[in-house]
Structure formats: structure tokens, C-alpha cells
Known about the structure:
Layout: H1 3-38, E1 69-74, E2 93-94, H2 97-107, H3 117-121, E3 127-134, E4 139-145, H4 150-170, E5 221-230, E6 237-245, H5 248-258, E7 260-262, E8 276-283, E9 288-294, E10 300-305, E11 310-317, H6 319-326
Antiparallel strand pairs: 1-2, 1-3, 3-4, 5-6, 5-8, 7-11, 8-9, 9-10, 10-11
Region (Disordered): 39-62
Amino acid sequence: MDDEARDRAPTRRWLGAALAVALVLAGAFALPRLMADDDGDGDDSSAEPSTDCVARTDAPTSEIGEQEATWVRFCPLADEGAALRVRHPQGVITGDLAPALAATLWETQVDRPVCGVDEASLRPTGLFRIEVGLVDGRVAELTGDTGCSTRDTVLFSQLETTLLMDAAGASGPPGPLPDPVTCPARFTTTETNHDGSSAGLLAETAESHWQSTVPLLPLPATAADVCVYSGAGQRRELVGQWQAGSPVSESIRASATTAVHLGAMTDCPLDPAAPSYVVVLTDATGTARTLTIDLTQCGPVQAAIGTPPVDTHLGLATQELIRLVARSGP
């Protein structure tokens, strides 16, 4: 087994555990949390503390393991100019779910390795920051890099999956799988997108400029349509098409978030014999967003980001993402 295979095996185990934990947490606490959020008589004395991100945290990270949490969310990096931020959902987890989630996040810290600059530079990099509101009113943070270690990827995935599942629960029951897409004649991200009722979760607001971190899809992906092309440039020809349902579709969405060399560009010889892919990810409300992987030119990944969708360069695909897309078909 080569080094890459050895690295993928524990990653799959940890990510599977993270998804299982998030599903249990979301299922167990989503209804009580939503009821608690809606329950109120207008008395200002019982108003909930702010769950907004803070400019500077005021509690050490160790307090997450010692105090109960009242809210958990992703927040912007302290360095607003950072170019390697991993995309993540907006939203905040509160109520009964917050302390349970914070506890699982804290458990991920045990024996979590610290990557040096040289080690991290050899892997796809995705920086993120999580803030945890504590019961005493202070705020602590967890920071990580999904390219650093499996544990960091699990830490990110635990909160990401919980936020996506929470948003999915608020969107109502899922509909049937969509009809297969009509693959575009051109190799593009702009022709196969659709706005369902969840599309507003991808919109950038005047108060929070999230375009650099707005996720690929607002809810878990329930379907992934893959269009396969041969040839290069304007001479591409559609040679295959299939649709994958969950959990494969959700694995592709998650991998496209964390298994990309963010912002990277490279120059290599053209390989017209290599395949290229258009992948359309659709959630339970019908919101669809498209990404492309061009293996004829070193694997750049483009994606339709936001509402309205904007064609955006994400970086270079890792072998993990390429294999997942290629093997998702029949």
C-alpha cells in the first residue's frame, strides 16, 4: 500500500465517524433547538446572548473542554487577506445541540498533530476557524487546516455536516431525485445551474461578505450528474453521462470542498487523451450548482459559486477528488 493509500484509509474512517456523529446530533437535537429558538415572550431579560463572530476571542481553547457551549459557528479568519480559506456554510448552532457538538469538536483535539509549514505545503490547504460561545459569555476558538491532517478534516466536517443537515431539516422533506441533466455542449459551469428554495443560503449579504467561503451547495448533495468528455479545448466531445445519488453525491460535494489545492494554478503539457468532467450537484430543494475538472490541463477545478452563480476558479483537483468522480458511475 503506497503512502497516499495509507493516508486515505484513516481519512475515510474519521470522515465516516464525523458524518455519523453529525447525523445523530442533528437528528437528536434539531427539533428541540428549533423549538427553543422560536419560544419567547418578548421579555428582554431572557434575551439570548449574541451569537455573532467576534473580532477577538477572550477565552483559551481549553475552556471548550471545561465549559458548556451555547453556540458554535464558522467565523472569518483573523487575517482577512488569507487566500487559502476553505468554503463553509453560514449559520450558527444553538440550543441543546451546541454543547453536544462542542464536546465532539473538543474530542477531536486529543492527540491532534500540528503541521509545519513544509509538511502543509505538500498537501491541499484549507484554513478555517470555529468560534464557540461559552456559558459564561466568553468566546473561544478552534483553528485548523483541512490539508494538515485527518483530524483537522474531521474537525471541519463535524461542524460543516451539522450546519448542512440543520439547514436541510429547516427546508422540509426532500423531493425525488431530479431528472438527469442535459449535458452542455460546451465545457462550462454556467449552463446547468438551478435555484431551488435553498438558493438564498448561497447569497452574499451586505453585512457579511462570504463570497470567498460560500459553499458549493447550501444543503447536502442528493444527486450528482457527471458528464464525461474526451478531447481538449473547443474540440471536446461528450462520451458518457451518469447520475449518482446519496451518499456518493454528498461524498463528491465534500471532497470538492476539502480535496482541492486551493487557488493553485500550474502549467503542464496538454493531454488531449485525458477525460474531463462536468459535475452538477443538486440538493433536496432542487438547487443545483456545477463544477468542472479539466484533466487535459493538470486538473483545474472551476465552480459556479453563489447566488447568482459566478464561474470561479477553485484550484487544482487532488487524486482523491478525481477518483471519486471517475468511480461514481455504473
